[in-house]
Amino acid sequence: MVTRRLAGLIPAALAMAVGATDSSAQVEHAGEIEGIVRDADSNEPLAGAMVSIAASGGRAVSHGDGTFHLPVPGPRTYTVRVERLGYRTVALEVDASAEEIVLVTMEANPIPLPDLVVTGSVVARAANEVLRPTSVFAGEDLQRRLAGTLAETLSSEPGLAVSTMGPASAHPVIRGLSGDRILMLEDGERVGDEFASGPDHATAIDPSSARRVEVIRGPGAILYGSNALGGVINVVRDDVPSSVPHHLTGAFTLQGQSVSNAASGSLNLTYGVTDHIPVRLELSRRSSGDLETPVGPLQNTSTDIREISGGTSWVDDWGHAGATFRYYGNDYGIPGGFVGGHDAGVRVEMERTATRLRSVLRPAEVFESIEVDAGHTWYEHREIEPPDILGTLFERQTVSGEVLARHSGWGPFSSGGVGTRGSREDFGFGGALFTPNSTQTSFAVFVLEEVDLNPIRVEAGLRYDWVRVRPDREDPSSDIGHIRERSFGAASGSLGALAQLTPSFTVGASVARAFRTPSVNELFSEGPHLAAYAFEVGNPSLEVERGTGIDVFMRLVGDRLNAEVTWFHNAIADYVFPLETGELSRVRLPIFQFQGEDAVLTGFESALEWALVGDLTVEAVASYTRGRIVETDEPLPLIPPLQGHFAVGYAPRNWFVEAETRVAAGQDRTGPFESATDGYTVFDLSAGIRITVLGRLNVITVRGENLGNAVYRNHLSRVKEIMPEAGRSVSVAYRVVF
């Protein structure tokens, strides 16, 4: 047994540096990196440490005796990363061809090192080494933040806010931009839902089963194209497994929340059927009742979410290739009480199925890896008015394919990638909408390269996109204008530099030229959007949005202090937004007309995490965005106010407690027919414990929110006129990773 042989190595491990190896101990299984993880002070084994190799996508979790088995595609040197909350992250080079057991000792540290980032970069890097402001959530950190929606889970990060029309339809807002300007990804691929086409549309992503979530703030269009003027959110699940685990692996999560009487659970399992074939299965379910506020319930806000997926692949020395299928369903309510709305509100039924084929080839010659993706997504969204009448229907089918080739050292370039992407999307509309069914076809080519001029690293990228939107009918005399086929072509570019002035202090700047094609709804919509309580009028003559974004930032990363400050400026030509006209339609709904105006958004983000004494830490986050229309100098509508939070925590190895204060200033810079909101202060308290049971790390977290039951209103809430935000709430979460 591996554990018996390792027992004799413990005295030697104490005398060795972190990540050392002992040539007298040989691995039992060829093609694997085997090792043991221990506490540097007590020499006790550590369960629940995440061990990963970014180059291959392989990962493993340490057992109760500290041992781990990590399959590798070939006998070469790999960078192995070992992480566990409460300990300093360890990164070490391991020669798999030596077939020696790796001994890892981890030192306690309440401030974790920045996590790895794979989104928006050609090379996986730590968050403090990327050229754009980035946030990463994984493991226990993700569990602490876990909420009913993805937007609420991410809301405490700098630069992020939440726009809602009821709890189920929470939308992420990055630097004042939301909807179709934020690109939502699942394992690096577009989700293909309709969340961006209305404030009432929920996102077809359940965060409870995510392995990690990455957020890139600011324009990130080179690798992903349009719809990334504000940023990119990538939910990583590894639906197509990239390695074969030695044992059954997975995670089980349970969560409950009092304020909405919510209960949820998720389970994902990965098992190696053979030495080359892993199979991954996932199940999740969430249900909730009406949201309770300090002044009463927000009626018709219950949810019922179910999700199931399965995937498999063939894993070999040359890489892996596989397929996955995912189903997502969500029935939820939009509250009533709005002008033109039903008193009882509207129910929404949405379904999404996604099939994906993915392969990663490692030719080990000119290109380090070649990624090939192909997928099909079907989505349907029905809005039902009482008693059971279909008011609005959205349908969408997407077929897409992408190839991305990454290289390491290549002439003057230290790393880089080239790629191409194509897609066809069919949009269907029904109910009371007169919007024509349409087809959107797109094609893109791109290149992104890095040059290492130590201590300065430079990144440059270029992309060209072509998009054609074709309605199923041409109507020169339509009430909204000349409905016709539209074609758009645009080039995007980015240039950035990062300078490491000291081992812990870096500065950087980037400029990006990005674009966004007007959506089908913005171009051709005509009719009542039932659940949004709006009569939407499109504009077939809208032009492409072109944005120029500038970021300047400073980062400090140390054993006891992490800090980052960013200033940004985003100038967007022909910024498209729905302007409330102040008029009512023939069905007594407020009329919103899509129009394009030049706009500018400027602001800052700051975050600090400081270990004061021992395991006592403080955290402070603040962000501010100011948006205006250039021609009139009037404020852009629905821009979040100055906001942030301050927290004090105490986190020894096996438990933690944290008190947090969330604050927001009043917002009186409002657009036409938009009401101002007052500032607020809200108090939260959370605690958790880590217990090793049967060799597995179990984490239980309890969180109390709005403990003072304060009556406050989120400026970005579409229901703030009729109800405040949620009242006092207690949530409990349990998670085990095995």
Task: Please explain how this structure is put together.
It is a single chain. With 738 residues, the chain is mainly beta. 4% of the residues lie in helices and 56% in strands. It is built from six helices and 43 strands. The strands form seven sheets. The chain has a 22-stranded antiparallel barrel. It has a five-stranded mixed sheet with strand order 11-16-17-14-15. A four-stranded mixed sheet has the order 1-8-2-5. The longest helix is centred in the N-terminal third of the chain and has 7 residues, at 139-145. It is globular. It starts with a helix and ends with a strand.
Beginning-to-end CA distance, first to last residue? 20 Å
Strands, count? 43
Supply Rg.
25 Å
Major β-sheet annotation = 22 strands, antiparallel, barrel
Estimate what percentage of residues fall within beta strands.
Answer: over 45%
- Average predicted confidence as pLDDT: 88
What general form does the structure show? globular
